[in-house]
Design a protein that fits this description.
The complex is a heterodimer.
Chain A (H helix, E strand, L loop, with lengths): L1 H10 L2 H17 L13 E2 L2 E6 L2 E7 L3 H10 L4 E9 L17 E9 L4 E9 L5 E3 L8 H12 L2 E3 L36
Parallel strand pairs in A: 3-6, 7-8
Antiparallel strand pairs in A: 1-2, 2-3, 4-5, 5-6
Chain B lengths: L2 H12 L14 H8 L1 H4 L21 E5 L11 E7 L2 E8 L7 H7 L2 H8 L7 H16 L5 H29 L3 H22 L8 E2 L2 E2 L7 H24 L2 H7 L7 H6 L5 H4 L7 H4 L20 H25 L17 H6 L1 H13 L6 E9 L2 E9 L7 E5 L1 H5 L3 H5 L4 H11 L3 H5 L1
Helix pairs in contact in B: 5-6, 6-7, 7-8, 7-14, 7-19, 8-9, 9-14
Classes of the chains: A alpha/beta, B mainly alpha.
Chain lengths: ~200, ~450
Amino acid sequence: MSEASGRGPEGGAPDQAAAGSAGTAEEALAGEDQGSPGTGGQQLLHGCPVTEVSGQRSVHIDAKGYLALMEALYRDGFEACMGVTGVDYMDHPGRSLPDGVKPERFEVVAELVSFSRRERLRVRCQVPADDPVVPSLFDLWPGVEAHERETFDMFGVRFADHPDLTRILMPEDWEGHPLRKDYPTGAVPVRFKEVP
Amino acid sequence: MTAVDMRELLKAKTSEGAQEMLARNEESVRELRNESGGVLRLPEGVALDYSDIDYESPDDETMILNLGPSHPSTHGVLRVMVEIRGEQVLRTKPVIGYLHTGMEKTGEELMYHQGSTNVTRMDYLSPFFNELAFSLSVEKLAGVDVPDRAGWIRMLMCELNRIASHLLWLATNGADLGALNMLVYGWRDRELLLTFFEKVTGLRMNHNYIRPGGVAADLPDGWRDDVNAICDVVLARMDEYDNLLTGQPVLQNRMDGVGALDAATAIGLGLSGPLLRSTGVAYDVRRDFPYLFYEQVDFDVIVGTGGDCWDRYAIRVNEIREAVRIVRQVVKAMPKGDYRAQDKKFTPPPRNRIDESMEALIHHFKLFTQGFRVAPGDAYVPVESARGELGCYIVSDGTSRPYRLHVRAPSFTNLQALAPMARGGFIPDVIACISSIDPVLGDVDR
């Protein structure tokens, strides 16, 4: 906010000041290894490649630029985040991704909606298996609290600065993250708590 | 012996003292118990010693109260931890997971034509919406064109399902707030719709009727008469319920101003459905991101202003009427044609062809043992269920099973609104708030 007001006198109009603050997000993103922008004529949004499959747009990002991109999209007018979930691409590493996006084992997928523009956007964030940590979106959309807990519970992806990152669906003492691809079905005996 | 002597003698022999009330010993706890009947009501060990009561307990003491998980007012196996000071609610935390059965993991094991059997069991009060979201998502990935009649049948069943779900909500909401007769009436009217569902799909719940490529069977003969009769009965009954519930100050006072949310909180929490619309945000997936043929029917999106339980009640009551309006238009507009896509890749051959043709038998066998393949990619398709935005996110790796199946459950997200709604209210208001969220625990836990 102070940055935007600092640019205000130079830019003049307040809407230009807002554009200047959006530009800082792009500058922050440009510092990441996002590949050269605009290669192959692919569509870019805040410097991140966008793909479109059957009328649905997805923007691709990695864990480092995730929060900056989300803040920029929040300022773009995506008022609501309808959900956050995860995908484990362990058996399916060769999925089609745009140029400049390095495939990782996990993906965190967020679904954004703009009510005023009637627009939807999916954000797919690559999360490496050896350090599965992404920033929490709780400060932007408090409603992702339960969704991020569910993603942590099911995939073991940890959300930094989440207010209450605990298991939500599985029992508190459960071992493993069931929706991971290396978590077998039917191989784990059903456990009951012992009667004290 | 004189008469006087006799009288003296009688008096001396029979008198046990004057029949008068003795002076009350106020210090005696036993005496107090006798007077208040405490001895009769409580066993000796439990009876409260009046001198033990501390009338000056400090005000800043709070207590954690566990509501549920097995309590009728929690609509299933929802456990709510409530921190209270006296009777006032400070914090609320829903604890879920008691009905978690790993349906998303199961969905990865099932082929696409089996998937709708699985997802229909999530939100068991509006199963058609689950099947619809799943089928639309698979069709988007596979690129199947569904015939018009199948789309209109889907709309018909979904709107009837919305009526059934809201009627059950009216019933349980009445029961939660003390209008127990409404419980019976709501279930009675829902039975009309379930009987029709059974006639069409063969099952009262968990239908597996809407499948990728169309629907499982065509509508039975005489369905128009059935649907028209249901519409007439439901509309007439809604007027009765307006007399029974809407006009009643006792019920209104239980809901008016209780659990109020503002629009900014509701949007921030990602709410949808009647919860979001009660705050004045006119977001309805049917109108904003149209699917099926909702662009061709005329309906209103009902919004509230106050965001309280009373608004949510009014929205659901009016949504029943709007659903009847949509159903009547669907009955008029229902086109002739196929009820499923005639795409040999997805649709099994007709039953009588299997008896005559070896190729048809092989085709049928291969389709049901190996399933059909779907192009790689991902798709998220939202639909407006009775509870809000129900979306199905499917990732396909090109095989006949979804690589990842995720259902964005409206109840799961909407349950987060309980804490801001219940804060500052009383314990009975918490019950009213849970009821007005209308969570289905199968949808929450999946």
